[in-house]
Amino acid sequence: MLNCGIVGLPNVGKSTIFSALTSAPAEAANYPFCTIEPNIGIVNLPDSRLDKIAKIFNPKSLVPASVEFVDIAGLVKGASKGEGLGNQFLGNIRQVGAILHVVRCFEDDDVTHVSGKVDPSDDIEVINTELALADLETVEKRVVNLPKMKKNQDKKISDKAKFIEPVLEKVSAALEQGRPARSVELNEKEAEALKELHLITMKPVLYCCNVDESGLEKEPESVKKVRELAAKDNSEVVVISGKIEAEIATLGDEEERREFLKDMGLLESGLSKMIRAVFHLLGLSTYFTAGEKEVKAWTFKTGIKAPQAAGIIHSDFERGFIKAEIYSCDDLFELGTEAKIKEVGKMRIEGKEYVVKDGDVIHFRFNV
């Protein structure tokens, strides 16, 4: 699942951020549950390397890498028991690969807070508790089925049940304490066994502090609280102002946006940082194909080998993979042309066992 779900309490700015991300208006209003069906948006990954490669090749078309964001309705206390359409929302979260948890870190009397006061620690606890309770229910259902599975005549099923029982016990103990499943130390085999349960709290989380303009100049105490909580969870934090990002999204062209950011004293938008952080949270990297017709960024799961990377372009490329001609985009920027790269011996011929690296420029050779 190469997508990211945007979650949080109602009225924390999720839909505003989503609209700015996709520059497509998601319904945003000052009352809970205005987003019921999740909005889905494909967002381009900001990557200066792509523009640099394009300057060298001057292609007819340029295709960036992208990430899918899902704007999920606001969760409330009791969501795990079905409060506020909770079951539907939790079902939507199960379908994503990572979670962007938007936390309100701004004061605004015109935007009501569901619990009457802005307190990021409380807000995060409400969401995390509901997600842990939902997962606990899933784990308990599986535990109830274990005795029957262990007696199954099919040895595969009975062995699997015996293996997963202590794993579920460890995870259940963490969830009962309100800790996420990802905080439990698991080996590769144990983690693999849990995958079919689609536990929400196994998903990686990026906390997004939504601040007002002053919060970008001087980090408020509320953001520091979020950083402390995130550190305990080994999660990252990004700070953005949904209001400012919404303004940037309305500007006509790239030049206007650059000027606006310059006036704000910012090098890039908060959303650009956030998109890149989500990309890495999902365990994704980018390789490039480059020629006069097209320069394109391809998204791949970090750690895959050359044939699988070729298969992202077309299944025929993977099936008939022979070899790959590869060089680093950094060498291209330094030397200026592919011809020069070949001349100095920086173009490599790699086979089926090559693990593709972020920033590789690849020409695949295949035969079908």
Can you describe this structure?
The strands form three sheets. The protein has a six-stranded mixed sheet, sandwiched between helices. Strands 3-9-8 form a three-stranded mixed sheet, sandwiched between helices. The chain folds into three domains: 3-45 and 65-116 and 203-281, Rossmann fold; 133-201, Obg-related GTPase Ych/YyaF, coiled-coil domain (DNA polymerase, domain 1, Orthogonal Bundle); 303-366, Roll (Ubiquitin-like (UB roll)), CATH 3.10.20.30. The protein has 15 helices and twelve strands. The chain is of the alpha/beta class. The protein starts with a strand and ends with a strand. The longest helix is centred in the middle third of the chain and has 31 residues, at 120-150.
Give the structure's gist in a few sentences.
By secondary structure, this protein is α/β, with parallel strands linked by helices. It has helices at residues 14-22, 48-57, 86-94, 120-150, 155-176, 188-194, 213-217, 221-232, 242-250, 254-263, 270-281, 306-313, 315-319, 329-335, 338-343, and strands spanning 3-7, 39-44, 61-63, 66-71, 98-104, 205-210, 236-240, 284-290, 294-301, 321-328, 348-350, 360-366.
